[in-house]
Amino acid sequence: MHFDCGSCNGCDIEVLACLTPMYDIERFGIVNVGNPKHADILLVTGTVNHRNKKVLKNLYDQMPEPKAVIAIGACGTSGGVFREAYNVVGGVDKVIPVDVYVPGCPAKPEAIIDGVVLGLQKFAEKVEAAS
Amino acid sequence: MITTLILVFIGLIVAPMAGGLIAGVDRRVTAWFQSRQGPPITQAFYDVAKLFGKEPMASNVWQIFCAYVYVIAAALSCVLFFLQTDLLLIFFVQAIGAVFLVIGAMSVPSPYSQVGAQRELIQILTYEPLLILVFVSLYLATGSFQVSDILAHEQPLLFKLPLMFIVLGYALTIKLRKSPFDFSTSHHAHQELVKGVLTEYSGPYLALIEVAHWYETVLVLGVCALFWSTSIPMMIVLLVVTYMAEIIIDNTMARMTWRWMLKYVWSVGLVLSVVNLIWLYAKI
After folding, report:
1. pTM of the model
2. In this complex, which of B37, B46, B53 lies closest to A131 when CB atoms are compared?
3. What tens digit of pLDDT does each residue of B72-111 get?
4. Fold type of domain A2-130
5. Which of A27, A37, A40 sits opposite B39 (nearest CB)?
6. DSSP one-letter string for B129-184
7. How close, in Å, is residue B182 to chain A by CA atoms?
């Protein structure tokens, strides 16, 4: 599942580019679902602010365990250039635990695919740890 | 006795396997249409195995109960079909499952699930009369509702009931959740009402519903196969052509509204049925 947490849409477009015939992330069996209850991996783009941190936390809590979180872009990983802004909390890891960080401004689709595949490995490790 | 056990085994184990593989092939062909590579053919099995390994999360016990009833009814109707029993019995067992899926979705307060459930009800209302008409015309053509008697019919039924096969195609498209009839929930990732009737099902319960969907796919394709039951190769050709047509329709059509579906499918379906039955009657 992909959540736009106050991104400038640069990273969002790159995330959606992963679904196109050019990159075709469905090769790995991945689909972009819109329902947190059906999701395994949460992709978050953009900075977290005081308004949307509750939404982010809520979405994370609605996903059934085991789950993995991937923070995408400079903003998602650390808060980026907006880090010092009065309304910004910071990176995604200030609110929920993050498994994979994908840097870039915006992050390249190749980097996002790498991050998602790494996220799948972490997800598989969690599945093994849980069973 | 041994034959019965083998048929039960086919209905219970082989049928959902076939359903999962069909789902995989469907995704591959759809990906090929969109000049993508697509997931592995066995992806549906990986997904279900993963869902069974996830944390069970349900809003209330009714949801869990309904998911189980849905999968049991779907499996039972599939087994009854392979045991070559009465078509009407199969129909009503299948209908129980379909209704319990809706009840489960209605038992939770989520508005997406509620609206999805209402739309699913309209879909059931649309395809159930058509399925009944198909079964009635099978009876009029062969003189029996028993699948074994229909299979014993010496001529392919497609020649006697060509229009009924198209009517069954509408029911199949709705049952498979294909565009333009995928507004209660979509089989693909693209959204409608988040995930409509399936929104609140998650983890192992979603896996049960997915398995039930495989059973239903095989059941409806099995009814399609009755239309050319005299030779196995032609039966397979008919099923492949039918399913390819479904995938093409799915990929070329936009999602429509329930009003359109009800008006269009009932008017076209009923007219085709009546014309076919008059023709059948006149020929006898």
Report:
1. 0.87
2. B53
3. 999 999 888 888 888 888 888 988 988 898 888 888 888 8
4. Rossmann fold (3.40.50)
5. A27
6. HHHHHHHHHHHHHHS-SBHHHHHH-SS-HHHH-HHHHHHHHHHHHHHTT-TTS--S
7. 16
